[in-house]
Design a protein that fits this description.
Layout (H helix, E strand, L loop, with lengths): L1 E3 L3 E2 L11 E8 L15 E3 L19 E3 L5 E4 L13 E2 L4 E3 L14 E5 L4 E5 L5 E5 L6 E8 L6 E8 L2 E3 L2 E2 L9 H6 L10 E4 L20 H4 L18 E4 L13 E6 L9 E4 L3 E4 L5 E4 L25 E3 L8 E5 L9 E9 L2 E13 L2 H12 L12 H21 L5 H31 L6 H42 L1 H10 L6 H11 L3 H6 L1 H21 L2 H7 L26 H22 L3 H4 L15
Parallel strand pairs: 16-25
Antiparallel strand pairs: 1-14, 2-9, 3-8, 3-12, 4-5, 6-7, 6-9, 10-11, 12-13, 15-17, 17-23, 18-22, 18-24, 19-20, 21-23, 24-25
Helix pairs in contact: 3-6, 4-5, 4-6, 5-6, 6-10, 7-8
Length: 640
């Protein structure tokens, strides 16, 4: 919080010899009111109404609940507010006499700087029973005067001067925890040292609150797809009534008084233009392209009248660096939206400046961090894959999900081709997709034959029992493969989206904000890739995918059908040219089990991974570009 103004007064030492006395007095604008000690920093008390005491464990940077005995508005100091060693000895008391030497005026013609602090006549944080709080500020209604009177020792020579000031509070507050209130916790979050603490957290608005399919909330309502001649969800491209921004309060008009026409407010921040700063194309969907990270609005997200143009052009966006008249800004406050990830903690600085006649006289700032979310970047991956999450239903089987299964592997292909140097795993996943696809097609053919056999009334009861059991295995296997594919996508696609958009720094920031979304193995993957150890980083995705994500499905399958994993393993072929079939991998023994992670790990490590690395060195993306089902013959399972 910043109090203003801070004006400097330079007493002139006209009489050079000692024993001159200087008296400082506070006057009201209407005439001499005498001296007041009511702003004396030594006369403050700490407490709360009705005996409610401030909690002892407040967050760093929170106010201490101090109030003042009476209503003084000004203090005069011999040292700047941030000076090292400043103490009450530097405070200049009203109506006290000071020698010129006390003020540092040692020689004729010398000057000294004094510093003015402005404060409200009652200003305090009150703590409620839930540790919420209310800021109280009673602003002076008329200008105040600082007067200086100097007397010579003969008491006949007197000189004086006065400066009129009007204390004003400039307090930029943002609802950083998005709980709908501006509280003490938000105030504490404002102060942060860049790179050390996050300050305020602002989560990126790239989810899809209104479920309009493939239009992220930060691009909703501006007709960006239609402007590119694309009809994708043009009718659904509207402001989301389920969305919300972070509330900003600066009390624009409260302190303007008679100076409203002279007073302007200017915001400076890392701005993204909602229209010019967002790019749409049919392949990659929507992307932030101007480097801006946040937006400031005059309306909340759900307001149907919200307009992506600048306020001065008839829209709802506060332009960074533009000075607005107080009368142009809504008294209810503004709103902040985050659209892209920060590069480091507290690297965003929202600065509000108050200008009088074009001159900045007061300001306040909030430090913050724009942070990704797993949910938001999963939504982004779904948007770019053109997958409707509401119709992705693995329990409905492969035929129902066939288009979605293909869309997943097409997404792997496109994302790999756009990032071949870093996303080695995605290319291999797309290759494995060909084998999985063939296995699913073959599985459906087997299901069709089994159902036809069961429809034969001449079938023996022994054959019927055998066919029923085989059908149960085949149907459960089909569902399991679709479930596995969805689980892998939901765990790993968002990570690739985040790295492609913002690099490893975004993972570091997210791990600080939401540690459970970036466990140590995920952090290791992207740290190694970012450091240039691309092969090892990508290979670290294999145990996460195969053991952490897929093994629970195989365990359930084994519990239901016993050693069926051995049977499946006999028909599992490599998705790579000249790759070894699973059952031929050295060291797997007589009965290799594809449902057992150590056997799959050995197959991948000894054969699939090194052959994939060798292949991409030579031919790069040729097979990755091939259509599903054209790479290999039937295979029932793939490691990826």
């Amino acid at each position: 919080m910043c109090h203003a103004p801070r004006q400097r007064h330079h007493p002139n030492a006209r009489a050079a010899r000692a024993r001159e006395r200087l008296a400082l007095a506070r006057e009201d604008a209407g005439g001499r009111a005498g001296c007041s000690e009511r702003s004396d920093p030594r006369r403050m008390w700490r407490g709360h109404p009705d005996g409610v005491q401030a909690p002892a464990d407040r967050l760093p940077g929170m106010h201490d609940g101090y109030d003042f005995e009476a209503s003084g508005n000004l203090r005069l100091w011999k040292a700047e507010g941030d000076s090292a060693g400043r103490s009450l000895e530097h405070y200049i008391q009203p109506a006290e006499e000071y020698s010129l030497q006390d003020l540092g005026l040692e020689e004729a013609g010398s000057t000294v700087k004094l510093y003015l602090e402005a404060l409200g006549n009652t200003s305090s944080w009150w703590f409620g029973p839930n540790n919420d709080s209310t800021w109280q500020w009673n602003n002076p209604t008329s200008p105040q005067a600082i007067s200086v009177h100097a007397e010579h020792e003969d008491l006949r020579t007197q000189i004086g001067d006065s400066v009129l000031v009007k204390p004003m509070l400039v307090d930029l507050r943002i609802d950083s925890d998005n709980d709908g209130t501006l509280s003490l916790r938000d105030e504490a979050l404002e102060q942060a040292e860049p790179g050390i603490a996050p300050g305020a957290w602002w989560v990126i608005n790239n989810d899809d609150s209104d479920s309009d399919l493939w239009v992220p909330d930060y691009a909703d309502g501006y007709g960006l797809a239609a402007a590119k001649g694309t009809a994708v969800n043009a009718e659904a491209d509207q402001v989301s009534n389920e969305d919300e921004f972070y509330k900003i309060s600066t009390d624009f008009t409260r302190y303007a008084g008679n100076d409203a026409e002279r007073l302007k407010v200017r915001f400076n921040y890392d701005a993204n233009d909602p229209i010019a700063g967002v790019q749409f194309d049919g392949t990659q969907g929507y992307r932030i392209v101007d480097g801006g990270l946040i937006r400031i609005w005059t309306t909340d997200a759900a307001d149907p009248g919200r307009d992506g143009r600048k306020l001065q052009d008839g829209g709802s966006v506060i332009e960074s660096g533009y000075a607005y008249s107080v009368s142009d800004l809504p008294a209810a406050g503004l709103y902040l939206e985050s659209v892209a990830s920060s590069g480091s903690l507290a690297d965003l600085d929202v600065l509000v400046e108050y200008l009088l006649d074009g001159v900045v006289f007061a300001s306040d700032r909030v430090a913050g961090t724009s942070v990704a979310s797993k949910a938001g970047f999963t939504t982004q991956a779904l948007q770019r894959a053109r997958i409707n999450p509401d119709t992705w239903a693995p329990l409905a089987g492969f035929p129902f999900n066939q288009n979605t299964v293909q869309a997943v592997y097409d997404y792997y292909r496109d994302t790999y081709l756009a990032n071949q140097d870093d996303f080695v795993w995605l290319g291999m996943a797309r290759m494995a997709g060909g084998a999985v696809w063939d296995g699913l097609i073959t599985g459906e053919q087997a299901i069709t034959l089994l159902r036809a056999a069961l429809a034969n009334p001449l079938q023996t009861w022994q054959d019927r029992l055998g066919n029923l059991y085989a059908l149960e295995i085949a149907e459960r296997q089909q569902v399991m493969f679709v479930e596995m594919q969805k689980a892998i996508f939901e765990d790993l696609a968002w990570q690739h989206e985040l790295y492609a958009d913002a690099g490893y720094a975004a993972f570091e920031i997210l791990r600080t904000h939401t540690p459970k979304d970036v466990p140590s193995d995920v952090d290791t993957v992207w740290k190694q890739i970012d450091a240039g150890d691309v092969v090892r980083g990508n290979f670290a995705l294999v145990p996460r995918e195969q053991n952490y994500i897929l093994q629970p499905y195989w365990d359930q399958f084994t519990a239901a059908f016993g050693m069926q994993g051995v049977v499946i393993g006999q028909g599992t072929r490599s998705p790579l040219p000249n790759g070894l079939p699973f059952a031929s991998t050295p060291g797997l023994g007589l009965f290799p089990n594809v449902a057992w992670w150590p056997d799959r790990e050995r197959w991948i490590e000894l054969d699939m991974w090194p052959k994939w690395l060798d292949y991409i060195k030579r031919e790069r993306a040729d097979l990755v570009k091939a259509g599903l089902g054209t790479q290999l013959g039937p295979a029932f399972v793939s490691p990826i």
